[in-house]
């Protein structure tokens, strides 16, 4: 019975063709309906399988209720065929058992039985759920049709199950989305809405956030108790309407910022974002959905930020104006990058180029500061960079700057930190000024001062001028020459200096071979002639050729290689007597007004020194001539005075005897006495002149001997008493009376005479005291009067030759007495001084060693 069936051998093509009836697997399709054939060991399970083969589904078989069957039952089966043809009762039992089990209860069963099977069992089995029965003879196609139906049912069930699964999942997702949406809308900072694009934009939905935002609950809006437009601030309403309309027209999202008024009347700034939902593409009135959120704090912050920005901009503008007005250059750099934050025009002006774009500290190296040896600053060496690195202020320092125009300037730079409230470095401010001119002026002043010192050091002006010429190089040029006008009108080269000593010889050679002429149209000759400075900033070669007298002259001039020249005159008291010529031999140097001023000042000082030296020489000559004249004159004057004095003495003696009884004799005697006094006075004056000429020639000779100063003073005072009395003064001698020493008596008398006669002359008729003191080896003579006194500024001067402290009206002296007195006192190894106050009198003190050295 279980034997093979002709259909089992059906070709695969037919198997496929059978699919429409049996629902077999399409090529490439994975079998989805498994079949299980069960029976007992004698059952023709292979035959059953063969009949089912055309269905194209996997068919499993089992004869036993064992572990294998358990595994098979775990699979998804479209149908179980129980072959009970060989053992009816076993088959029925199997069917019942399969219906009993949960996992197999729903799998359709097909019971294959013989027609002789027990009808009661058969009915019982068919009464079970999804059990069908097929009695013999079993036609293969019939069997396949039945099984195919089960397969189809299985498939449909599966599809249905899958659809149900999907639907369940979709529902779960939808539920989750809804929950999430509720959560989001409930927690949204603001309100979500849905409204219609009709006047007033009535809300059909408002999220719970509406209450917090507006003070109205969602239902206030959805029930239309409050319209959306009532919320909007009247001043913003028009703008909001226009904004919505524009977005709708352009079909773009609505984005608006406006004010609302809450239920309690508070004003709030809100931000709205919404879109128009066109449910039907043609619908004219779309639905608007979106949300509105409170941005009041943000708006306030924004406003504050705006205000701060305006304030900051104003402050920045003020700072900018201030730094632009500053006379110094200012550069403010951000910390820590060094990026330029602010700079004034003066900075770029001083640097000579635009500010460098600094992104990091290393970029500072692109500025052009240099060391004294010409090497560039590293980035870290710049004062501003040092503040950025250390945060510490950098005091003023001098920095050399190599400007792109080739000039090197000296800047005085200082830099300091700008800190924030926390003390953190925020920026660095550097300021600098150009002190090139100042330094140059200082150098020049120092140069002029030292030159003046040199000029004042000696009256040998030729030597000092030669020294000055040497000093002018290289301060004022590479080459310097000095030419002087001689009394005969020729010009003599006095000095030459050159940075290259070899070329100095060329300058000498030039003056020797081509003497400078006053009528020359250039150079020192022309300057001496005109007295005017000649500045030639640049000397082109053709100018040299024009100036040269011949080829050799040109060769010598070219050899000096002067490319810029400056010739300044030496003049004093309206007379030009020399010229100082300066020359640069390098392309980088050319003379300008500054150099001209300096050179002229130098020449002025030199000329003054020359003039002074000349005047001094002339004065010395004049003094010498005067002294010679005085010497001759005083000798000549003294010669007739001695016999005149003798004749008057004789006349004075003879007169009483010759004119006895003559009443006119007394008058004649007075005339003779006056004549004798005048002769004495004249002889004193002439003696003074003689002394002066002796002193000038160093011919004052002392003849020391044992002398008593007390005795000398007493004698001289006795001689002057009548004269003192004549002017109303009392002359008193005080102190020591005996002061022996070793002095030239006559000269000592001269000293005492001079002091007492001055005291009488300037004593204003008041008492005069002459006092002698002794101090071991020292004799001191003090002559004090209470007369007119001597002004402080004249107290030293009166000891000079021909010096007087009063006008001629007060005295008939020559201003020589004190000069001779001091010369004598000092020759004796002593000293003389005066203490005096105007109107209160004078005190002259002479101190003399009692024994001169060598005695
Ligand atoms: P002279 O012949 O003019 O007096 P001196 O050399 O003796 O020359 O004095 C110089 C000047 O010093 C005087 O002209 C006078 O002005 C001042 N002098 C000298 N002695 C006195 C004095 N005792 N009191 C005031 N002035 C005096």
Q: Give the domain tally.
A: 5
User: Which ligands accompany this protein?
Assistant: adenosine-5'-diphosphate
CATH architecture name of the largest domain: 2-Layer Sandwich
What amount of the residues lies in strands?
15-25%
What gross morphology would you assign?
A: rod-shaped
Tally of separate helices: 25
Q: Nearest-angstrom radius of gyration? A: 70 Å
Instruction: Briefly note the CATH topology name of the largest domain.
Output: Beta-Lactamase
The largest sheet is: 6 strands, antiparallel
Distance between the termini: 188 Å
- Residues in helix, %: 40-55%
Strand order of the largest sheet: 12-11-16-15-14-13
CATH class of the largest domain: Alpha Beta
**Count of DSSP E strands?**
28
Average the pLDDT over all residues and give the rounded result. 88
Class from secondary-structure proportions: alpha+beta
Residue runs with pLDDT of under 50 for 5 or more positions: 1-30
Kindly report the name of the CATH homologous superfamily of the largest domain: GAF domain
Describe this structure in words.
The protein is of the alpha+beta class. It has five domains: 34-167, 3-Layer(aba) Sandwich (Rossmann fold); 188-294, 2-Layer Sandwich (Beta-Lactamase), CATH 3.30.450.20; 326-434, PAS domain (Beta-Lactamase, 2-Layer Sandwich), CATH 3.30.450; 435-700, Beta-Lactamase, CATH 3.30.450.40; 701-849, Histidine kinase-like ATPase, C-terminal domain (Heat Shock Protein 90), CATH 3.30.565. It is 46% helix and 22% strand. It contains 25 helices and 28 strands. Mean pLDDT is 88; it is low at 1-30. Bound molecules: adenosine-5'-diphosphate.
């Amino acid at each position: 019975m279980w034997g093979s069936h002709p259909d089992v051998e059906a070709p695969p093509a037919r198997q496929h063709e059978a699919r429409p009836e049996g629902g077999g697997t399409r090529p490439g399709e994975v079998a989805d309906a498994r079949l299980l054939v069960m029976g007992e060991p004698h059952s023709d399970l292979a035959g059953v399988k063969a009949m089912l083969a055309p269905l194209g589904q996997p068919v499993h078989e089992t004869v036993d209720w064992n572990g294998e069957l358990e595994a098979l039952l775990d699979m998804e089966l479209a149908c179980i065929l129980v072959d009970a043809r060989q053992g009816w009762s076993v088959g029925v039992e199997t069917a019942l058992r399969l219906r009993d089990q949960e996992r197999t209860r729903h799998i359709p069963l097909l019971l294959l039985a013989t027609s002789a099977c027990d009808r009661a069992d058969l009915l019982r089995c068919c009464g079970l759920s999804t059990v069908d029965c097929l009695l013999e003879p079993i036609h293969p196609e019939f069997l396949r049709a039945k099984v195919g139906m089960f397969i189809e049912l299985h498939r449909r069930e599966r599809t249905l199950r899958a659809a149900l699964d999907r639907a369940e999942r979709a529902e779960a997702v939808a539920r989750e989305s809804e929950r999430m949406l509720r959560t989001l809308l409930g927690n949204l900072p603001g309100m979500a809405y849905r409204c219609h694009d009709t006047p007033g934009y009535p809300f059909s939905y408002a999220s719970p956030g509406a209450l917090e935002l507006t003070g109205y609950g969602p239902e206030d809006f959805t029930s239309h108790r409050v319209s959306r437009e009532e919320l909007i601030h009247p001043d913003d309403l028009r703008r909001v309407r226009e904004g919505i309309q524009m977005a709708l027209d352009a079909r773009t999202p609505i984005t608006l910022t406006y004010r609302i008024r809450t239920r309690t009347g508070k004003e709030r700034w809100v931000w709205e974002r919404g879109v128009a939902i066109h449910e039907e593409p043609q619908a004219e009135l779309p639905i608007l959905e979106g949300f509105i959120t409170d941005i009041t704090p943000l708006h306030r912050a924004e406003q504050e930020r705006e205000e701060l920005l305006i304030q900051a901009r104003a402050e920045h503008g003020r700072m900018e104006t201030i730094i632009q007005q500053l006379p110094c250059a200012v550069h403010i750099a951000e910390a820590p990058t060094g990026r330029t934050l602010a700079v004034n025009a003066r900075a770029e002006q001083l640097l000579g180029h635009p500010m460098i774009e600094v992104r990091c500290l290393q970029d500072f190296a692109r500025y052009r500061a240099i060391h004294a040896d010409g090497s560039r600053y590293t980035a870290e060496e710049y004062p501003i960079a040092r503040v950025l690195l250390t945060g510490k202020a950098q005091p003023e320092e001098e920095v050399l700057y190599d400007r792109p125009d080739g000039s090197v300037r000296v800047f005085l730079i200082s830099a300091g930190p700008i800190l924030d409230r926390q003390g953190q470095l925020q920026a660095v401010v550097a300021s600098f000024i150009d002190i090139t001119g100042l330094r140059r002026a200082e150098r020049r002043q120092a140069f002029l001062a030292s030159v003046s010192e040199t000029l004042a050091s000696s009256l040998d002006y030729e030597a000092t001028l030669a020294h000055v010429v040497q000093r002018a190089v290289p301060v004022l040029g590479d080459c310097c020459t000095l030419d002087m006008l001689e009394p005969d009108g020729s010009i003599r080269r006095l000095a030459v200096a050159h940075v290259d000593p070899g070329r100095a010889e060329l300058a000498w050679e030039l003056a020797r071979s081509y003497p400078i002429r006053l009528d020359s149209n250039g150079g020192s000759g022309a300057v001496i002639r005109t007295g005017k400075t000649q500045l030639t900033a640049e000397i082109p070669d053709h100018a040299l050729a024009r100036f040269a007298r011949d080829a050799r002259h040109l060769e010598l001039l070219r050899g000096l290689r002067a490319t810029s020249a400056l010739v300044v005159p030496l003049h004093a008291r309206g007379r030009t007597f020399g010229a100082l010529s300066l020359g640069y031999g390098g392309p980088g140097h050319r003379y300008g007004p500054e150099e001209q001023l300096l050179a002229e000042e130098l020449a002025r000082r030199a000329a003054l020194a020359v003039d002074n030296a000349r005047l001094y020489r002339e004065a010395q000559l004049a003094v010498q001539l005067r002294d010679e004249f005085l010497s001759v004159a005083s000798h000549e004057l003294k010669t007739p005075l001695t016999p005149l004095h003798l004749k008057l003495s004789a006349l004075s003696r003879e007169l009483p005897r010759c004119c006895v009884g003559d009443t006119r004799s007394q008058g004649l005697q007075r005339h003779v006495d006056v004549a004798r006094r005048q002769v004495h006075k004249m002889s004193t004056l002439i003696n003074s002149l003689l002394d002066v000429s002796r002193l000038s020639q160093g011919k004052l000779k002392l003849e020391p001997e044992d002398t008593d100063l007390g005795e000398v003073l007493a004698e001289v005072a006795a001689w002057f008493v009548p004269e003192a009395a004549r002017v109303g003064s009392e002359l008193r001698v005080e102190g020591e009376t005996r002061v022996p020493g070793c002095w030239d008596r006559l000269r000592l008398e001269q000293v005492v005479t001079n002091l007492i006669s001055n005291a009488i002359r300037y004593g204003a008729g008041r008492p005069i005291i002459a006092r002698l003191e002794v101090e071991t080896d020292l004799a001191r003579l003090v002559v004090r009067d209470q007369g007119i006194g001597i002004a402080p500024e004249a107290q030293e001067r009166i000891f000079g030759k021909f010096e007087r402290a009063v006008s001629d009206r007060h005295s008939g002296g020559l201003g020589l007495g004190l000069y001779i007195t001091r010369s004598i006192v000092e020759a004796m190894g002593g000293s003389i001084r005066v203490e005096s106050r105007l109107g209160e009198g004078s005190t002259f003190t002479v101190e003399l060693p009692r024994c001169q050295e060598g005695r």
